[in-house]
Amino acid sequence: MATTTTPLPAVAIDHRGHSTTRNLRTVGMVWTRELIRLRRMPTRIISGIAQPLLFLIVLGAGLKNLVGGQSLPGGVSYQVYIFPGILAMSIITSALFSAVAIVWDREFGFMREMLVAPVSRTSLVLGKAVGGGSVAVVQGLILIVFAPLIGVDLTVARVLGMIGSLLLLAFALTAFGIVLASRMERMESFQMVMALVMQPMMFLSGAMFPLQGLPTWLGVLCRLNPATYGVDLARRTLLGSDFALTIGDWVVPVWFDVAVILGIGTAMLAVAVRLFNTIE
Amino acid sequence: MNAVEVDQLTRRFGDFTAVDEISFAVPTGELFGFLGPNGAGKTTTISILCTLLHRTSGGARVAGYDVETERDLVRSNIGLVFQEITLDDYLTAEENLRFHAVMYGVPAKEIAPRMDPLLEMVGLSDRRDQEVRFFSGGMKRRLEIARGLLHMPKVLFLDEPTIGLDPQTRFHIWDYVDELRRREQTTMFLTTHYMDEAERCDRIAIIDHGRIVAIDTPDALKASVGADTVMLRTTDDATAERELGEHFGLEVEHRDGQLVVHVPDGEAFVPRIFGSLGVGVSSVNVRRPSLDDVFIKYTGHDIRDAEAGNAAQFAADAMTRAFRRS
After folding, report:
1. Does residue B109 lie in a domain region?
2. Considering only CB atoms, which chain A residues are within 8 Å of B95?
3. What is the pLDDT, as a whole number, of residue A5?
4. B162 with B65, same domain?
5. Is residue B112 included in any domain, yes or no?
6. Out of B75, B91, B110, whose CB is closest to A11?
């Protein structure tokens, strides 16, 4: 081993507390990390699209003969009807999953490295939310490729609108996931989240069936579920306004969908930042 | 100037006092060691100094900043190597370092000039593009040490840096640490329960049940224990014993067929034996007091007994739990 005593090159570092540049670069770095990790774990992508494809192809084909024709707006096939819903569901799953990876970070120590750094917790949470959101959208985009196969007409405008909707939904859901994960200590809790949060959220979202003519209790529950507005946004972006959600006689406008998702996403982000600030 | 100043620092977890009114200072450039069994309060102290844990009372300054009121300034001026690995397994060595550099505000174009020689020094240059999950425990440690120094901290904290590593790897880690110290002159604050690691420190503090029971250089601490032990094998023990008494006024003990005497400076004493004993000496063994002896003297127990003890283990567990919660 060399026994040189030459000092290593010194660098000029601004050691003064928070700086905006440092925090912004941190957002970018946390975001990049999510994408790098996705690339290193291709199985995550596969498992992320396997379940939606099963729903779409197997369940969709299986139920096609029971549902469809006159029972769906515009007489579209059941597969076409559930396609936007399935996309939204895959976004929800994947966004929650990347947020819950925080629990892993905690278990394997990397969380420590981030929490002791002289950066604001807000930048860590923001980076995570944007990162988790992008990962979810990447998976959503892979699924969009299947749209023409089941008979959904894709136009540039529809695809762009879809990407926008998915991005919004993914961001809000990741923020929600971070809130859940910031108080979770063990990975087992993740199973609980799956059962108590993710599945009810998906079943009550109108992803699999129209929300008209349901028993009152079910209709109310579905309309209280924020995910419903994400599914609605995705469906009318891709299939048109015939498919719009109604509350009573009121046809929910697009801006209302956006406002609900954005509002909940922002609120969740604020809560996540607060929770992160109290972690030592 | 002192890199670390601690004044009457106390931390309680419920009824349990993990750190009990300790005070000490570490001058800039020193390699300072905290020696004590698990559960003695080492990690609690280091966590407070690194702003990871709030103190109950007392105060501490690190790199000139208050650990309670100037946390971010403390954080950007220290490097940390924790007991557990805190690398991202799915990032490469270089990506882990870059991530760190960004969070600590190293300007983008200065990352490489600083990172490259550090990677070189810890022997990971050719592994920089490999994901960390393929690294051995020793390689991960080396990478963490390089990472801890990446942003030119004024103080590097190493909490049990070689725990769980095999002896050969531990030895290598120390080679790297010594080299880095020669080149960087960073103040290093180490906790350990290995005596051989404590030996390497400029000064050590012995901590037991949350209190500092002794603090000095390893040599001074050993000298404070008392005399060296000299063991002799002779051709005629009876004569030798009588002559040792007559010439040096020493009391002789018998142990395992050897004559044992205690003298202040064993190495200087040995040549004098040959000059004054009329009998043949077949072997001489001089043993200086070890840090084990020092530890026993100041704490009243062996460091390994302390670790085996249920009380200490309970304390350690309580601390870990409290740490996770907070």
Report:
1. no
2. 33, 36
3. 57
4. yes
5. no
6. B110
Which residue from B77, B86, B91 is facing A15, i.e. has the nearest CB? B77
Same domain, B212 and B313: yes
Q: B299 with B277, same domain?
A: no
Residue B313, pLDDT score = 47
Same domain, B186 and B280: no
Answer yes or no: are the C-beta atoms of A205 and A231 closer than 8 Å: yes
> A with B: how many residue pairs have Cβ under 8 Å apart?
120
Separation in Å, CA of B110 to nearest CA in chain A: 6
B46, B82, B86, B145, best to mutate vs chain A, most A CBs in 10 Å: B86
Measure the CA–CA gap between B126 and A236, rounded to whole angstroms: 53
Q: Are residues B10 and B63 in the same domain?
A: yes
CB distance B232 to B240 below 8 Å: yes
Domain edges within chain A: 44-58+74-278
- Verify that B208 and B257 share a domain, yes or no: no
Does residue B320 lie within any of the structural domains? yes
The CA angle B302-B304-B307, to the nearest 5 degrees, is: 115
What is the percentage of chain B residues whose pLDDT exceeds 70? Answer: 93
Same domain for B158 and B213, yes or no, is yes
By Cβ distance, the residue of B86, B117, B182 closest to A9 is B117
- b/e per residue, A73-102, with b = 16+ CB within 10 A? beebbbbbbbbbbbbbbbbbbbbbbbbbbb
Give the tens place of pLDDT for each residue, B15-55: 999 999 999 999 999 999 999 888 888 889 999 999 988 99
Closest CA–CA distance from residue B185 to any residue of chain A (Å):
9
Report the SS3 class of residue B308. helix
Instruction: Report which residue type is found at B190.
Output: L
pLDDT of residue B325: 45
Displacement of CA A96 from its chain's centroid (Å): 6
pLDDT of residue B312: 46
* Residue numbers in A near B77 (CB within 8 A): 15
Contact A49, A139 (CB under 8 A): yes
Chain B residues inside the 8 Å CB shell of A40: 90, 131
Residues of B in Cβ contact (< 8 Å) with A41: 90
CA distances (Å), origin B21, targets A113, B11, B40, B58: 29, 8, 13, 7
B interface test, pick of A3, A4, A5, A15 with most B CB neighbours within 10 Å:
A15
Specify which residues B259 forms β-bridges with.
B232, B254
B168 and B269, same domain (yes or no): no
Range of the domain at B167: 2-77+153-222+295-325
Give SS3 for A100: helix
Query: What chain B residue is nearest to A113 in terms of C-alpha separation?
Result: B86
Q: What's B72's domain CATH number?
A: 3.40.50.300
Pick from B110, B122, B214: nearest CA to B174: B122
Give yes or no for a contact between B147 and B100, defined as CB atoms under 8 angstroms apart. Answer: yes
Q: Please indicate whether, in this complex, the C-beta atoms of A116 and B75 are within 8 angstroms of each other.
A: yes
Residue B113 to residue A9, Cβ atoms within 8 A? yes
Q: Between chains, do A13 and B152 touch, taking CB under 8 Å as contact?
A: yes
B132 in a domain, yes or no? no
d(CA B38, CA B36): 7
Domain count, chain B: 2
